[in-house]
Amino acid sequence: MLEDLNERGPLQGLKVLDISNVIAGPFATAMLGDFGAEIVKVEMPGTGDTLRRDCRHLPLTAGAQPVDP
Asked: Cystine design at 37: which of 8, 13, 32, 58 (Cβ 3.0–4.6 Å)?
């Protein structure tokens, strides 16, 4: 049982709606995703997330999955 938990993460099955913007919120959301939560990121149409647009060198949005409206 513990081996399964370690592979999936302790937050497996949890969905997080991320409406945050600029560093602290996306960083916290990325950490939740690292622990297995499914992240749904809501962004401004046409402009996207400020952090991803202005700080492309940071790995905070790795693994994000785009969703078409």
From this structure: 32
